[in-house]
Structure formats: C-alpha cells, structure tokens
Amino acid sequence: MKENSARNLYVLWAVAFIVGLIAFIMKLVTGERLAGYGSYVPWGLWVGLYFHFIGIAGGAFAIGAIGYFLNFKGFREHIRVILLLSACSIVTGLFSIWLDIGQPFRFARILYSPNFGSMMAFNAWMYLVFFVIIARIFYLTMNKIHQNDLHDKSGWLVPLFAFGFVFSIAFPSQSGSFLGVVDAKPFWSSPLVPLLFLASAITCGAAAILLVFTFLFPTQTSVREQPFSMLRYTIIGGMAFYFIAEFAEFSLVFWSPNSEIRTAVELILFGPFWWVFWFVHIGGSIAALIMLIRGHSFKLLGTASFIVVVGFLSARLNILIPGQAVSQLKGLQEAFYHFRLRYDYSPTFNEYLIAIFIGAFGVGLFYSGMKLLSKITKKRIGTPL
Questions:
Q1: What pTM was estimated for this model as a whole?
Q2: Which of 112, 225, 233, 347 has the smallest set of CB atoms within 10 Å of its CB?
Q3: pLDDT tens-place string over residues 33-44
Q4: Which of 7, 9, 46 is nearest to 302 (CA)?
Q5: Does residue 1 fall inside a structural domain?
Q6: Which domain holds residue 200?
Q7: Rounded to an integer, what distance in angstroms lies between the CA atom of residue 100 and that of residue 337?
C-alpha cells in the first residue's frame, strides 16, 4: 500500500514537473507575453510565490533554531533536515523571483554592483549571508562523531544558530517592509503588514517541518510527543495570531478616511476573487485547525500541514495583488486602453503552470538533497539519516 502511494506521488510529481517545464520553456522563448501582469499590476503570482517560499525558509530555520536551543526531542537529531528544508525553500523563492525579472540573466549585477540604498539589493545580500550561515552550520553538524552526539565540540554552532535566527526573523518581516516603503500604495503602508508576513512565515515554516517529519519519521514517536506536539501548537498559535492581526487591520480600514485602502480591502472580501479569501484562506485554515486540534494520526497532521503550506499562499496574494489593484488617479484606466494597462489582474494559464513547476522544482530539490544527505550521513557517521 505504501509502495503504491509512493509511486502515485512520483507520477504526480513527474507530470507536474514536465507540464510545468514546457510552460517554463515557453516563457523563456516568448518573454513576458504569456503573463497576465502589466504596467499597473507588475507583481503577480510568481512574486507571491517568492514571498511565500522566502517566508517558509525563514520560519523553518527559526523553529529549528528554537528546537535546537531548547533541546526538544527530534530537532537536534534531525537538524540537518530542517536546514536542508530552509535552504531549498530560499533557493525556490529566489528561482521564482528570477522568473519575474524582465532581464533574468542580469541577476548577478545585484551582487557585484549593488546599490544598498535599494531594499532589493539589501534583501539579496541578506539572503546570501543567510545561505552561508546555513552551509556553515550544516558543515559543522556533519563533523559529529555520531548522529546522536549533540555536544557542540566546535563552539560555533550556538552563535551561528543565534545569528541565523536573527536573519530568519528579519527577512520575512523585511518582505512586508519592502512593500511598506512603496508610498504610492497606501494599502501596503499598514504597520501590521510586516507582522502578518512574519506570522505567516513562522506558521508555514512550522507546517513545512511537520509535513516533512510526518513523511520521514512517522513511526519514531507518537503524534502527542515531540517534535510533533511543539510543531502543532506553533502552527495553531501562529494561525490564531495571524487572524487576530488580520481582523484588526480589516476592521480598522472600514473606519479609515482613506478610500484607496478601503477599496483594496473590499476587493479582498467581495471582489472578483472573493473565494480566495473566504474559501481558500478562511475555509482551508479552519479545516486545517480542526485537523491539528484533533491530530490523532500522522496522516491527519500531514494533510493539515499541506493545507497550511499551500493555502497560506492566498494570504500573501491577498496582500500583494489588492495593493496594486487600486488606481491612484481616478479615470486613469479609462483614459488609456491596452490589455497591459489594467488593474484587474488575473494569472494566465501559463503563469499557473509555471507556478506548479516552481513547486515541483522545490519538492524535487528537497528530495534530491535528502537522498544525498542520507548517503553522506551514512558514509561519515555509519548510520543512515
């Protein structure tokens, strides 16, 4: 039965990857002609995926670091898995934003010729430093004599984890600040936006770890023990905080004199894509919460974690898209007509296929990393991961 399930997953992944790869090649050949974004709404689905995967990377590392510091069962033993998850997530996020760049093969200029007055350049270098920290921690953990040898003989692990923890908290909230500095978009200027980005990062990071653990280590402990218990409560707490902050933001908006902000919120709640908020975001989150609270089986926890990881993308998009979908000049859309001069952005079929490809790319990257990690671990410490 397990072999059939694994085979079905492999087939599903292969189909998603191949179909998405075809769309990706079409994008490389045609440029941005097959995309639905334009001059008024230049940031679409792929930018939302970028923010989402970057958040997962930061949240997963932060949860792993806390588990390492507090010596929760299952975290130190499998810290390399969490580091790999964080690294693969940040690579996938950067791959997603690379696709959105008009001249993607000029990306290296932000590294060798940066303008640190730009928050984009600042973020890029912050990701690079964070990736170096992950690589160094990974190397130090591989020098342990035995997989269960938790003593830090080098003396560098705790400082590096502390330094990395600061970065992992900084860049998810920094993503919200990145939107907040765009003065022309009042909806993004709310002080709650960085907090919402951070809360969703912690929530999705914990959910991603829980999803991986339910697949890899479902027989090593009970669902009521660590690390599953800590991850469950982290997800539940993160979701509760997010919805409280979101309710506070939306409720205040309806008393705000700024009509642009109110229009953006009305688009989220009652606009053409109202179902994204009510069905995907709210409905999916309620279903996941029920599963997490009941949580009597690894299958239930894995399903809930998957819903959170995938469904919380809607939370990113509900901040990103409506903030651009309101005109700052009345009558601007009516003054000029072109399909690239529209505020009602909707992802095209090609964008959806490439989004699937990005997800398949991230899953394949993590799976390949796990295979390599298992071989290296077995060779160096004499026991498989």
A1: 0.91
A2: 112
A3: 888 888 888 889
A4: 9
A5: no
A6: 15-24+39-381
A7: 24
